[in-house]
Design goal:
The protein has about 170 residues and is an all-alpha fold. Helix content is about 85%, strand content about 0%. Helix 1 packs across helix 4, helix 2 packs across helix 4 and helix 4 crosses helix 7. The termini are far apart.
Protein backbone atom coordinates (compact mmCIF):
# COMPACT_ATOMS: atom_id res chain seq x y z
CA UNK A 1 0.00 0.00 0.00
CA UNK A 2 2.89 2.34 0.67
CA UNK A 3 6.13 2.97 -1.20
CA UNK A 4 8.16 1.39 1.63
CA UNK A 5 6.01 -1.76 1.53
CA UNK A 6 6.38 -1.88 -2.24
CA UNK A 7 10.18 -1.59 -1.94
CA UNK A 8 10.27 -4.31 0.72
CA UNK A 9 8.16 -6.56 -1.48
CA UNK A 10 10.49 -6.04 -4.44
CA UNK A 11 13.57 -6.68 -2.28
CA UNK A 12 12.01 -9.85 -0.89
CA UNK A 13 11.17 -11.12 -4.39
CA UNK A 14 14.67 -10.32 -5.67
CA UNK A 15 16.21 -12.14 -2.71
CA UNK A 16 13.98 -15.17 -3.33
CA UNK A 17 15.01 -15.19 -7.01
CA UNK A 18 18.69 -15.02 -6.09
CA UNK A 19 18.28 -17.87 -3.61
CA UNK A 20 16.43 -20.01 -6.16
CA UNK A 21 19.07 -19.28 -8.81
CA UNK A 22 21.89 -20.17 -6.41
CA UNK A 23 20.16 -23.40 -5.39
CA UNK A 24 19.57 -24.28 -9.03
CA UNK A 25 23.21 -23.62 -9.92
CA UNK A 26 24.32 -25.78 -7.00
CA UNK A 27 22.02 -28.60 -8.14
CA UNK A 28 23.37 -28.31 -11.68
CA UNK A 29 26.99 -28.48 -10.46
CA UNK A 30 26.37 -31.49 -8.24
CA UNK A 31 24.45 -33.41 -10.90
CA UNK A 32 27.02 -32.51 -13.58
CA UNK A 33 29.82 -33.87 -11.36
CA UNK A 34 27.95 -37.12 -10.77
CA UNK A 35 27.25 -37.47 -14.51
CA UNK A 36 30.90 -36.70 -15.28
CA UNK A 37 32.00 -39.55 -13.01
CA UNK A 38 29.55 -42.03 -14.54
CA UNK A 39 30.51 -44.17 -17.47
CA UNK A 40 27.93 -45.16 -20.03
CA UNK A 41 27.53 -45.64 -23.72
CA UNK A 42 24.54 -43.99 -25.31
CA UNK A 43 23.28 -45.44 -28.60
CA UNK A 44 23.16 -42.99 -31.49
CA UNK A 45 19.45 -43.74 -32.02
CA UNK A 46 18.74 -42.59 -28.48
CA UNK A 47 20.58 -39.31 -29.11
CA UNK A 48 18.72 -38.84 -32.40
CA UNK A 49 15.38 -39.39 -30.65
CA UNK A 50 16.30 -36.79 -28.02
CA UNK A 51 17.33 -34.34 -30.76
CA UNK A 52 13.93 -34.93 -32.39
CA UNK A 53 12.24 -34.09 -29.07
CA UNK A 54 14.35 -30.96 -28.69
CA UNK A 55 13.50 -29.87 -32.23
CA UNK A 56 9.78 -30.34 -31.51
CA UNK A 57 10.12 -28.29 -28.30
CA UNK A 58 11.97 -25.56 -30.19
CA UNK A 59 9.36 -25.51 -32.95
CA UNK A 60 6.55 -25.25 -30.38
CA UNK A 61 8.29 -22.38 -28.57
CA UNK A 62 8.84 -20.56 -31.85
CA UNK A 63 5.28 -21.17 -32.96
CA UNK A 64 3.98 -19.70 -29.69
CA UNK A 65 5.99 -16.57 -30.58
CA UNK A 66 4.61 -16.51 -34.11
CA UNK A 67 7.72 -17.85 -35.83
CA UNK A 68 8.03 -20.98 -37.94
CA UNK A 69 11.07 -23.27 -38.09
CA UNK A 70 11.44 -22.51 -41.80
CA UNK A 71 11.53 -18.79 -41.11
CA UNK A 72 13.97 -19.30 -38.22
CA UNK A 73 16.30 -21.34 -40.42
CA UNK A 74 16.06 -18.70 -43.13
CA UNK A 75 17.00 -15.94 -40.67
CA UNK A 76 19.86 -17.90 -39.11
CA UNK A 77 21.08 -19.42 -42.36
CA UNK A 78 21.08 -22.86 -40.77
CA UNK A 79 19.92 -26.11 -42.28
CA UNK A 80 17.95 -28.72 -40.36
CA UNK A 81 21.05 -30.93 -40.34
CA UNK A 82 23.13 -28.11 -38.85
CA UNK A 83 20.50 -27.57 -36.16
CA UNK A 84 20.50 -31.29 -35.39
CA UNK A 85 24.31 -31.35 -35.08
CA UNK A 86 24.23 -28.26 -32.88
CA UNK A 87 21.69 -29.90 -30.54
CA UNK A 88 23.49 -33.26 -30.21
CA UNK A 89 25.79 -32.32 -27.28
CA UNK A 90 22.85 -30.99 -25.27
CA UNK A 91 20.79 -34.06 -26.18
CA UNK A 92 23.58 -36.34 -24.97
CA UNK A 93 23.86 -34.38 -21.73
CA UNK A 94 20.10 -34.62 -21.13
CA UNK A 95 20.13 -38.39 -21.68
CA UNK A 96 23.15 -38.95 -19.45
CA UNK A 97 21.68 -36.81 -16.70
CA UNK A 98 18.33 -38.55 -16.80
CA UNK A 99 19.90 -42.03 -16.80
CA UNK A 100 22.17 -41.22 -13.86
CA UNK A 101 19.29 -39.73 -11.88
CA UNK A 102 17.08 -42.73 -12.65
CA UNK A 103 19.86 -44.97 -11.31
CA UNK A 104 19.98 -42.89 -8.12
CA UNK A 105 16.21 -43.33 -7.80
CA UNK A 106 16.66 -47.12 -8.04
CA UNK A 107 19.74 -47.32 -5.83
CA UNK A 108 18.19 -45.22 -3.06
CA UNK A 109 14.72 -46.71 -3.55
CA UNK A 110 13.18 -43.26 -3.90
CA UNK A 111 9.42 -43.47 -4.30
CA UNK A 112 6.77 -40.82 -4.71
CA UNK A 113 3.57 -41.27 -2.74
CA UNK A 114 0.12 -40.68 -4.16
CA UNK A 115 -0.20 -37.80 -1.70
CA UNK A 116 2.92 -36.15 -3.13
CA UNK A 117 1.53 -36.61 -6.64
CA UNK A 118 -1.75 -35.02 -5.55
CA UNK A 119 0.18 -32.03 -4.13
CA UNK A 120 1.93 -31.54 -7.45
CA UNK A 121 -1.32 -31.86 -9.39
CA UNK A 122 -2.87 -29.25 -7.06
CA UNK A 123 0.01 -26.87 -7.87
CA UNK A 124 -0.50 -27.43 -11.58
CA UNK A 125 -4.24 -26.95 -11.25
CA UNK A 126 -3.71 -23.66 -9.43
CA UNK A 127 -1.36 -22.52 -12.20
CA UNK A 128 -4.01 -23.34 -14.81
CA UNK A 129 -6.78 -21.94 -12.60
CA UNK A 130 -8.54 -25.30 -12.53
CA UNK A 131 -9.82 -27.63 -9.88
CA UNK A 132 -7.44 -30.45 -8.99
CA UNK A 133 -10.06 -33.10 -9.57
CA UNK A 134 -10.78 -31.78 -13.08
CA UNK A 135 -7.10 -31.82 -13.96
CA UNK A 136 -6.75 -35.37 -12.63
CA UNK A 137 -9.65 -36.43 -14.85
CA UNK A 138 -7.82 -35.10 -17.90
CA UNK A 139 -4.63 -36.95 -17.00
CA UNK A 140 -4.12 -40.50 -18.20
CA UNK A 141 -2.56 -43.15 -15.98
CA UNK A 142 0.57 -42.80 -18.13
CA UNK A 143 0.63 -39.04 -17.44
CA UNK A 144 0.42 -39.70 -13.69
CA UNK A 145 3.10 -42.39 -13.91
CA UNK A 146 5.40 -40.03 -15.83
CA UNK A 147 4.77 -37.30 -13.30
CA UNK A 148 5.70 -39.65 -10.45
CA UNK A 149 8.90 -40.61 -12.29
CA UNK A 150 9.77 -36.95 -12.80
CA UNK A 151 9.14 -36.19 -9.12
CA UNK A 152 11.34 -39.15 -8.13
CA UNK A 153 14.10 -37.81 -10.36
CA UNK A 154 13.81 -34.44 -8.61
CA UNK A 155 14.07 -36.27 -5.29
CA UNK A 156 17.25 -37.88 -6.62
CA UNK A 157 18.64 -34.41 -7.33
CA UNK A 158 17.71 -33.31 -3.80
CA UNK A 159 19.37 -36.45 -2.41
CA UNK A 160 22.60 -35.82 -4.35
CA UNK A 161 22.73 -32.19 -3.24
CA UNK A 162 22.20 -33.20 0.40
CA UNK A 163 24.91 -35.86 0.14
CA UNK A 164 27.31 -33.49 -1.60
CA UNK A 165 27.15 -31.16 1.39
CA UNK A 166 28.42 -33.99 3.58
CA UNK A 167 31.56 -34.48 1.50
Amino acid sequence: DTLDEYKQDIEKKLQERKEKAAASQNEDRVVAKVVENASMEIPEKMIDAQVDNMLRETAQRMQSQGLSMDLYMKYTGMTMEQMREQMKPQALKRIQTRLVLEEVVKAENLQVSDERLDEEIAKMAAAYQMESDKLKEYMSEQDKKQMKEDLAVQEAVDFLVAEAKLV
